[in-house]
Amino acid sequence: MRTLLIRAALLLAGALTATLATATPAAAHGADAPDGTDYRTEVTAVTPARPGLAVRTVEAGARLELTNTGDRTVEVLGYSGEPYLRVGPDGVYENLRSPATYLNRTIAGDTRVPAEANPAAEPDWRRVDDSSTVRWHDQRALWREAAPPPQVRAAPDREHRVRDWVVPLRDGTEPLEVRGTLDWVPPPDAYTWWVVATLGLLAVGALGLLPAASAPGTRALRVVGALLVCGGVAAMVSTVAREVDAGASGVGGVLVGLLGGQVWALLTGLGAIAAGAYALALRPAADFAVALAGACLALFAGVANAAVFARAVVPAPWPATTARLLLALVIVTGAGAMAAGALRLHSASRTPTPTRS
Q1: What is the 8-class DSSP label of residue 313?
Q2: pLDDT, tens digit, 9 for 90 and up, residues 210-252
Q3: Contacts by 343-350 with C-beta closer than 8 Å and gap 24+?
Q4: Strands across the sheet with 174-184, in order?
Q5: CA 61 from centre of chain
Q6: Pairing relation of β-strands 53-58 and 39-47?
Q7: What is the pLDDT of residue 64?
Q8: How far apart are CA 340 and CA 291, in angstroms?
Q9: Does residue 103 contact residue 86 with C-beta atoms inside 8 Å?
Q10: 350: closest CA among 225, 222, 180, 211?
Q11: How far apart are CA 130 and CA 108, in angstroms?
Q12: Residue 228, Cα to own-chain centre: how many angstroms?
């Protein structure tokens, strides 16, 4: 049993190391797909309307997504009125002469603009995709200052309209506009959510105090296993939801997004389901499997997404409260299963082995 505990500690240390090792690149690109924000960006209209032309927000409002399935090419204009993006039947192009091509690569707009970028110069189009959809950060639709607007600082507990915004488009020589709003939304009380999650995981973890070899202990293991399956399902649903909110469509698009950026959460969700089923079947070493899978679930799919508790707008295609409930379920079942499994392993290691006379 001591060997199992040592292996569990080593695996958890490796998991934590992997999390820390991937934290730097995640932080570097985190603005592109934020874990949450208190600014709500919405598209209200495209005027005049065009058949096959649609614009919406994705990634919790961090990007605009334009889809043009019509037979006419539409251009997105940059900050100086220059051609920036072009979307039409022949695919998506970006103008290498437009400063917006470089400024919009991050939400902070801090990418270095090369000397050859000149909004007054003739466009230099580069094909970047063969689809009819393009996504980009647009500073006109975002709040980029570190401090909130003055009206928010004066009354942070109220919702505020920060501004109405416009992104100009062009269909040939005819001007079009994407109109939208940017609002401040008061964040939720993260403390309350953490209290609920902590009480829940303590309740689940307490199931590990029942004697493992007893009938109540056997039933408790099955309960923990069933809860772990629920937590794994919740983690996978949340992970898929994040990809859908980022603009992924169809099974193929979602799978590409999952494998490209959400693989840890996906694997821990699957692992939790497998470990929960293992415990429900009362298989040997189920306590170890439950403890390890629960720890990984709480770490990679739970704590890693903790910003959901503290942000008003979250990367999910449903209300933020639903996303917080799913996260709470992941943390409760993951950390609770880890505690219950560890307690059962500790109890078994202290049980004296009967000696033969």
Answers
A1: B
A2: 998 899 999 999 999 999 999 999 999 999 999 999 888 777 7
A3: 343/205, 343/208, 343/209, 344/208, 344/212, 344/217, 344/221, 344/287, 345/1, 345/4, 345/5, 345/8, 345/287, 345/288, 345/291, 347/208, 347/211, 347/212, 348/1, 348/212, 348/287, 349/1, 349/2, 349/5
A4: 39-47, 174-184, 160-171, 74-77, 83-88, 91-95, 125-129
A5: 13
A6: unpaired
A7: 97
A8: 7
A9: no
A10: 211
A11: 27
A12: 21
Task: Give yes or no for a contact between 66 and 76, defined as CB atoms under 8 angstroms apart.
Answer: yes
- Joined together, the tokens standing for residue 163 give 């501004």
208 class by beta-carbon count within 10 Å (0-12 exposed, 13-18 middle, 19+ buried): buried
pTM of the shown model: 0.83
- Read off the pLDDT of residues 148-182 as tens digits, 9 standing for 90 and up: 999 999 999 999 999 999 999 999 889 999 999 99
- Quote the CA–CA distance of 169 and 118 in Å, as a whole number: 19
Specify burial of residue 222 (Cβ count, 10 A radius: 0-12, 13-18, 19+).
middle
CA angle 188, 191, 192 (to 5 degrees): 75
Q: What is the pLDDT of residue 351?
A: 59
